[in-house]
From TrEMBL:
This is NAD(P)-binding protein. InterPro entries: NAD(P)-bd_dom_sf, Sc_DH/Rdtase_CS, SDR_fam. PROSITE patterns: ADH_SHORT (PS00061). The lineage of its organism: Eukaryota, Fungi, Dikarya, Ascomycota, Pezizomycotina. It holds the Pfam family adh_short_C2. GO terms for molecular function: mannitol 2-dehydrogenase (NADP+) activity; oxidoreductase activity, acting on NAD(P)H, oxygen as acceptor. Belongs to the short-chain dehydrogenases/reductases (SDR) family. Residues 33-59 are annotated as: Disordered. Residues 37-48 have a biased composition (Basic and acidic residues). Keywords: NADP, Oxidoreductase. The keyword Oxidoreductase applies. One of its GO terms (biological process) is secondary metabolite biosynthetic process. Gene3D superfamilies: NAD(P)-binding Rossmann-like Domain.
Amino acid sequence: MFRPANFRQAAKALGQPTRKALTTSFFRPLSSTAPLYRKEDDKSKKDPLLTATTNAPKGTLEAEGQYARTDENVKIEYPDDEHMPRSPVVQGRGGMHFKRTLADFSLENKVTLVTGGARGLGLAMAQAIVASGSDLAIVDLNKQEAEEQAKKLVEQFQKENPGLEADQIPSVTAHYSDVSDPESVDTAISEVILKHGKIDHLVTSAGFAENFDAVSYPYDRIKKLWGVNVDGTYLFAIGVAKHLLERKAPGSMVMIGSMSGSITNVPQPQFPYNASKAAVRHLAASLAVEWAGHDIRVNCISPGYMLTALTRKILEENRELRDKWISLIPVGKMGAPEDLMGAVTFLLSDASRYITGADLRVDGGYTLT
Ligand SMILES: NC(=O)c1ccc[n+]([C@@H]2O[C@H](COP(=O)([O-])OP(=O)(O)OC[C@H]3O[C@@H](n4cnc5c(N)ncnc54)[C@H](O)[C@@H]3O)[C@@H](O)[C@H]2O)c1
């Protein structure tokens, strides 16, 4: 705050003129502030670098700024559910520990619910959770795939941990839910509690993206996207929090946002997705504060471009888009779903006990430039 007395003292100490003298010699009346330069010698108008950026024609292509703009012509074809590629179970990441690490990273004796766990990033994070000793409930729109993956996760765990007794093998179950439907969410949560006896941790990975330019984006599609990405995250968070509050138990939640919650991706236009992920990030921060006094932590992971079975298929059909994306990532490559395994384990576990409301960007440095 400006304090005239302090200013006078400082001026005195520096041997500067007093306030009266300063007023006349240093201060100009506001109305007579001189322009930085006169119009006639405005060199900026003649500077080719400055004029280039201001002369860029409206529209998108072949113009200055083109690499930092969305292009309404870029359309990514997402396959329908029937043709969605399956995600493989990660090999060689879990297993018996021969290298020492902190016991705090363990998720033993916990029950974790992962939405969208049948595929992609949700599946890789689910696998990390099982490898870290937690029981798991996969909740997904696609129950059949969730059931198949649940079996594979247990098989992989047994392969990596031979010789364990049956009661040492994590219990992995599959459940149906449309995360955007409150009734369906409540039913799934009750079902999981019935099967596992409790829920300690939550990961919300169910979500999707699609591309339309803002003007032609069908409004019903916007509502659907926000319903899944935002409401779906909120509904599961509230449902699990109610259960934790009733049990007076601690818990940890990880919401899957995206770097798109902080930046605008190019060239594909996707404004409602970007907005939905900004909402997820702030949902995590807001709920973290609300529940901090109840020992319930809420954090967000914001992945960058990750090479899931789905993005691999899309980019194999669109090399130009792939090259453009990779050219914008400082580490020079897309992330693998496995790159989220450590991040989610850390944020769910006691190793991060003093971290809440954080946004952990796993994006190869994308958002730094
Ligand atoms: N893949 C990436 O590059 C990337 C980058 C940043 C963020 N993300 C985010 O990560 C999350 C997972 O993405 P992904 O790439 O693994 O996608 P994915 O399509 O491979 O998997 C999403 C899973 O969510 C399920 N799902 C979709 N809608 C659902 C609904 N209404 N109810 C219940 N389940 C539903 C799907 O059946 C599927 O199993 C999403 O929230 C996505 O926005 C992905």
